[in-house]
């Protein structure tokens, strides 16, 4: 049984940091990602990691501030210099895909496996 369980969300001041974790079990995926759903918007990709070569990509909106990484069973999202617009529900997601298909251009419909989400709230 595939399970993705996020943790680490919470509240922070603008300019602060948070680290999200996602424990993944039940299958070994080659594409694991973080998505977020900001208030009033759909769910969009934030960062992806290709487990085959450990390559990563992040969305332009968080480039230079967010870092995606992993150890064997856990995916992380280090979020630095947080802004109020980073307020969102954050989800980890996983799929099996080609290298090219594992990108921040892939939308939520491309992913089959999801965690339950963790809320991040950033105040100014």
Distance between the amino and carboxyl termini: 41 Å
Q: Helix segment count?
A: 0
SSE order, as H and E?
EEEEEEEEEEE
Q: What's the total number of strands? A: 11
Q: What share of the residues lie within helices? A: under 10%
Shape: globular
| Contiguous runs where pLDDT drops below 50 for at least 5 residues | none
Q: What share of the residues does DSSP label as strand, in percent? A: over 45%
Instruction: Supply the helix-strand structural class.
Output: mainly beta
Give the overall pLDDT as a whole number. 96
The main β sheet shows up as:
7 strands, mixed
Rg estimate, integer Å: 13 Å
Describe what you observe in this structure:
By secondary structure, this protein is mainly beta. It is built from no helices and eleven strands. The strands form two sheets. Strands 2, 4, 5, 6, 9, 10 and 11 form a seven-stranded mixed β-sheet that branches. Strands 1-3-8-7 form a four-stranded antiparallel β-sheet, with no helix packed on it. The radius of gyration is 13 Å and the shape is globular.
Question: Topology of this structure?
Answer:
Elements: E1 3-7, E2 10-13, E3 18-25, E4 31-37, E5 43-50, E6 55-58, E7 66-70, E8 74-79, E9 88-95, E10 113-114, E11 118-123
Parallel strand pairs: 2-11
Antiparallel strand pairs: 1-3, 3-8, 4-5, 4-9, 5-6, 7-8, 9-10, 9-11
């Amino acid at each position: 049984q595939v399970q993705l369980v996020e943790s680490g969300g919470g509240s922070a001041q603008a300019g602060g940091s948070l680290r999200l974790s996602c424990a993944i079990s039940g299958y070994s995926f080659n594409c694991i990602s973080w998505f977020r759903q900001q208030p009033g918007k759909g769910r969009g990709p934030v960062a992806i990691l290709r487990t085959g070569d450990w390559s990563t990509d992040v969305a332009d909106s968080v480039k230079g501030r967010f870092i995606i990484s992993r150890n064997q069973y856990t995916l992380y999202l280090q979020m630095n210099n947080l802004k109020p617009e980073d307020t969102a529900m954050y989800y980890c997601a996983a799929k099996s895909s080609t290298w090219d298909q594992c990108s921040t251009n892939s939308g939520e419909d491309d992913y089959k496996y999801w965690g339950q989400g963790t809320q991040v709230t950033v105040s100014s």
